[in-house]
């Protein structure tokens, strides 16, 4: 293990990104918002209801900005020093790697195969790794593909290690042609490996089209007569590294599992799958660290496990308090620029407080923390204190919390006490592993309540994360360049809408459940600003209401001829605010290397998501709290770079915004998600038209001086933010607004106009 002598340079260092200039900008914006509010309060009597609504909305924005300023105050991250790790550490700790998949159609098996191959090939001793794939789809096709992948892995893993390949997901690696100058041995092996990979792809494709291979052998018997929602547990050891050697030619253990599902038996989606993974791996390899990735998130940096170890093994910086190391989620498509920005600034800000929030993928957890341990259970040396040990190991206590299977109790006790893992063959555990996948196994235990991935929210990641920080642990954020993991995001359209609605709902569930960041203000060990961070993100969904009102207010005021903004010099406050915010966000985008267009598209996407997806999140949570309906998780459709929309001949590398044909475009279908946006655009257009034809000259002025150019400009700004809906009015096909949606929006607009003008 690591040499803990403090005279040696550290394995990692904390890098602070704090900037006095940015703090000043944040505070100035806060000050401007505040003065605007004061002005509104002073002029309350002279103005009508719109003024009050504006005041309320702006109070919300002020509150949000206050939270953002607190969160962004002291951004930080960790930088690992790999060279020092190699010098000092000779016996690396084991790591169990988890992949979840749930649907062979939405998550094409070849994508899962690539993620798994990239994990099996990481730069880490093979005998210290094990890869577990949980398949909630109970798909023989996925199993077949993984089996084939394990055969290819015996060529792929040694090839990657021999030539120190950086990107170890073959579908990405082989997108780049062979360099003609390479020596002939490499060229030969490269050609051969590529051919073998193409054969693998072919086999998976053939199997997808034609399922007669299913009868091919006893191995698939477990899948016969099963449905994804009704089957018993399947555990298959696809490959076992029996010799336990860690050399470059060896492939780590590789296990396929699919937990039991029965109708009427809740399964808790991904969180349930993760907890089953934790149990099975506990029985088989019981590694002290666990890496989890979504099935589309392949490893893009072969050294990622060692990077994480630099953080965990660093002794001088209280490493034992670090519960998890989170790498940012990056994407091989450009559908997620706004998400990347969110992580770079807000994410780093949170990372500088108590540590980053767990985002569900690309994260290394320590097993003992996932077993519910609190920071108080440690003694000064970082081991579990004798009091805590006695409490936990008391007769029957573990069985009550973890389930009564005695092998589980034994593995948990060993994990908590960090006993070295006894070498045994993992196939011996198959029978017990099946038992702990039973859908009643967790009944009356603490799984999902205080242990493992926590239930009760579709945002299982944020929910689990707050549980960990509330027990006093910290976490670390590492964002290497090039990114450690890459995945995909759906293009802006119905699928993305569903995803953002799910996140919005999931966060609101966190806000209202047992673990709410509002609760336990004094007794929990979470830091104050960290709590603010959780409050801020779990309230995302609620932002839809002020945002929606603010998009409609300028139009209302223009039609009603009442003032929304101050007149004369005071208008300067609003103009400065908008201008500063634009420049600030633009700077944030350009600094990360994004284009002006990407900035504009992202601003637009934020407004569209806030006024539609999150509105539905509020509906979801209201229905849930009233006990009328439950929330349902819909798995996000994944795309491989080759199958990306349009032709297949787009450039394979990260598609630049300017080149990406879908950038800034919004795929629209007949669902209700597209009604609010259409409505907002029509209302603002109607108001601009009214202003254009001089409607105001005939109506009486309300408030200080009625409406004017400022309100009209604001309407134009709103239309620009909802541009895809404006262009959608004139388009047909997937970017056009369906007639039915249009009719509904026109009807609502007519009502709005009558309401605004008529009063
Ligand atoms: O019943 C289920 C549903 C999903 N999954 C898996 O969970 C992962 C994430 O699901 P996905 O539909 O891809 O969600 P995303 O919106 O892409 O996921 C983000 O948001 C989720 C929380 O909403 C987090 O759990 C994820 O890690 C995070 O990447 C995928 O690997 C799925 O296969 C399961 O294993 N079982
Ligand atoms: Mn995803």
TrEMBL record:
One of its GO terms (molecular function) is cellulose synthase (UDP-forming) activity. Its main location: membrane. Pfam families: Cellulose_synt (PF03552). GO terms for biological process: cell wall organization; cellulose biosynthetic process. UDP-alpha-D-glucose binds at residues 106-107, 136. The keyword Transferase applies. InterPro entries: Cellulose_synth, Nucleotide-diphossugar_trans. Keywords: Cell wall biogenesis/degradation, Glycosyltransferase, Membrane, Transferase, Transmembrane, Transmembrane helix. The gene is LOC130510590. Mn(2+) binds at residues 270, 294. The chain crosses the membrane at residues 20-39, 51-68, 568-587, 614-635, 672-693, 708-730, 737-757. It is a multi-pass membrane protein. The active site is at 136, 461. It is found in: Endomembrane system. This is Cellulose synthase-like protein B3. It comes from Raphanus sativus (Radish). GO terms for cellular component: endomembrane system; membrane.
């Amino acid at each position: 293990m690591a040499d803990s002598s403090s005279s040696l340079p550290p394995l990692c260092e904390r890098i602070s990104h704090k900037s006095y200039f940015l703090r000043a900008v944040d505070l100035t914006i806060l000050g401007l918002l505040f003065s605007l509010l004061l002005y509104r309060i002073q002029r309350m009597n002279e103005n009508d209801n719109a003024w009050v609504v504006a005041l309320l909305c702006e109070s919300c924005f002020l509150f949000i900005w206050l939270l953002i300023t607190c969160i962004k105050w002291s951004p930080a991250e960790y930088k690992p020093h790999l060279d020092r790790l190699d010098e000092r550490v000779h016996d690396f700790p084991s790591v169990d790697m988890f992949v979840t998949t749930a649907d062979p159609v939405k998550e094409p098996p070849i994508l899962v195969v690539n993620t798994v191959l990239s994990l099996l090939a990481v730069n880490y001793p093979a005998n210290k790794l094990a890869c577990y794939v949980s398949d909630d789809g109970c798909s023989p096709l996925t199993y077949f593909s993984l089996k084939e992948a394990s055969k290819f892995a015996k060529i792929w893993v040694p090839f990657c290690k021999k030539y120190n390949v950086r990107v170890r997901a073959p579908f990405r690696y082989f997108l780049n042609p062979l360099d003609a100058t390479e020596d002939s041995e490499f060229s030969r092996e490269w050609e051969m490996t590529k051919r073998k990979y193409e054969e693998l792809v072919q086999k998976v494709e053939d199997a997808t089209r034609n399922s007669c291979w299913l009868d091919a052998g006893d191995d698939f018997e477990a899948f016969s007569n099963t449905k994804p929602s009704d089957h018993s547990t399947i555990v298959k050891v696809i490959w076992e590294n029996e010799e336990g050697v860690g050399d470059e030619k060896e492939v780590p253990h590789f296990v396929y599992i699919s937990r039991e599902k029965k109708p009427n038996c809740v399964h808790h989606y991904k969180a349930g799958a993760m907890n089953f993974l934790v149990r099975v791996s506990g029985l088989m390899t019981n590694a002290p660290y666990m890496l989890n990735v979504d099935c589309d998130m392949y490893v893009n940096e072969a050294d990622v496990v060692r990077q994480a170890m630099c953080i965990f093994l660093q002794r001088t910086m209280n490493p034992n308090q670090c519960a998890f190391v989170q790498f940012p989620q990056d994407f091989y498509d450009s559908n997620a620029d706004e998400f990347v920005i969110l992580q770079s600034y807000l994410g780093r800000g949170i990372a500088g407080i108590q540590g980053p929030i767990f985002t569900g993928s690309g994260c290394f957890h320590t097993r003992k923390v996932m077993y519910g341990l609190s920071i108080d259970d440690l003694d000064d040396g970082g081991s579990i204190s004798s009091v805590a040990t006695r409490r936990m190991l008391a007769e029957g206590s573990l069985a009550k919390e973890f389930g009564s299977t005695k092998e589980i109790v034994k593995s948990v006790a060993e994990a908590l006490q960090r006993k070295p893992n006894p070498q045994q063959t993992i196939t011996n555990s198959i029978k017990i592993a099946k038992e702990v996948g039973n859908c009643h196994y967790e009944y009356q235990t603490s799984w999902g309540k205080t242990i493992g991935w926590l239930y009760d929210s579709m945002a299982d990641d944020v929910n689990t994360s707050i549980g960990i920080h509330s027990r006093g642990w910290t976490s670390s954020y590492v964002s290497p360049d090039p990114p450690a993991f890459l995945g995909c995001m759906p293009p802006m359209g119905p699928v993305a809408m569903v995803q953002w609605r799910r996140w919005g709902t999931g966060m609101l569930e966190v806000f209202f459940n047992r673990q709410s960041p509002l609760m336990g203000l004094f007794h929990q060990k979470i830091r104050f600003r960290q709590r603010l961070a959780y409050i801020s993100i779990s309230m995302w969904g609620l932002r839809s209401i002020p945002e929606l009102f603010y998009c409609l207010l300028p139009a209302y005021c223009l039609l009603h001829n009442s003032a929304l903004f101050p007149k004369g010099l005071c208008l300067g406050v609003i103009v400065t605010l908008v201008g500063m915010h634009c420049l600030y966000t633009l700077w944030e985008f350009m600094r990360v290397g994004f284009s002006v267009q990407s900035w504009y598209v992202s601003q637009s996407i934020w407004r569209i998501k806030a006024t539609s997806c999150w509105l539905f999140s509020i509906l979801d949570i209201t229905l849930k709290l009233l006990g009328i309906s439950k929330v349902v998780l819909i798995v996000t459709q994944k795309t491989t770079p080759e199958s990306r929309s349009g032709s297949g001949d787009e450039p394979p590398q990260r598609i630049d915004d300017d080149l990406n044909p879908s950038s800034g475009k919004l795929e629209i279908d007949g669902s209700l998600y597209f009604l609010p946006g259409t409505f907002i655009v029509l209302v603002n257009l109607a108001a601009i038209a009214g202003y254009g034809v001089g409607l105001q000259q005939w109506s009486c002025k309300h408030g200080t001086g009625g409406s004017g150019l400022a309100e009209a400009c604001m309407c134009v700004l709103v239309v620009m933010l909802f541009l895809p809906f404006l262009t959608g009015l004139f388009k047909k096909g997937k970017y056009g607004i369906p007639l039915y949606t249009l009719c509904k929006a026109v009807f609502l607009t007519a009502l709005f106009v009558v309401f605004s003008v008529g009063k």
